[in-house]
Amino acid sequence: MSGSRLAPGLRAGFPIAAAGLLIGLSFGVLARPVMGPVAPIVMSAILFAGSAQFGSLAVLAAGGGAVPAIVAGVLLNARFLPLGIAFAPSLRGSPLRRAAEGQAVVDASWALANQGDGRFDRDMLLGATIPQYVSWVGGTAIGVAIGDALGDPRDLGLDALFPAFFLALLLPELRSRRFVTVAAAAAALAFVLIPLTPPGIPVLAGCLVALVGLRSA
Amino acid sequence: MTEVWITIGVLSVVTIAIKAAGPLAVGGRELSPPAMRVISLLAPAVLAALIVVGTFADGRELAFDARVVGLAAGACAIALRAPLLVIVLVAAASAAGARALGAA
Hints:
A: mainly alpha, 11 helices, 70% helix
């Protein structure tokens, strides 16, 4: 694989990585009092999944213990199963290589690489994930190091950053009435389920709305 | 402290398995037209759900706080065709401003 093939993805991933740096930073700030200085950085480096890290951290911080924290994280990451199945036909090579490249699937890269007809630009996905990974781990380390000087990340509005980012990715997806209907139904279902189900289930249930595609339009 | 490392270890292994499952099961193969339609509809579904959860969820409770202001400001930036980085910064700054003015 040559560097130039990944260049468009690297460029597309850069602004997301800048946002991810701030979110990673807020994770480091919030995680340090609960996990100590090393574990948050290790977690970001190995797990590399914002929502699952925040979700399991919230359980641990509340004294919930390891098993509920793991369950929360797994539920929040369960959407990577359908996302990975969607990405899979665009991958080539040995099973081990496909499984390794599947690790690069994160929400933003997956949405950027989505070509809209059910196919994905593999180089775009891998390229866009690289700067996000670097900034996520780096941001966590900075947050652990200087967290005390920053105060509450919520005061900086960092929790409002990703919804706006996902909205910017969603609007170009709404090419036909069917896409609008599916997005609206998934949004409504997720909204209704927030107070009724554990975190992670609302997004997973939203994914299931895409099954209406089994019927032709 | 042990439970922190157990959480990180188990959650990492399970997540790697979740991400590997799709590529191992259906890698490199063409899917049927209905399956491709489902996949193409997955992006608007998952993005819409992520927006709603990221804006309105506070754990298992519904919350209407400064994030709504941030999302609305971000939507305005999108309508004005601002670049992506500007969109997310406008959203964060607006939410921060709303909190400075006393919003939750």
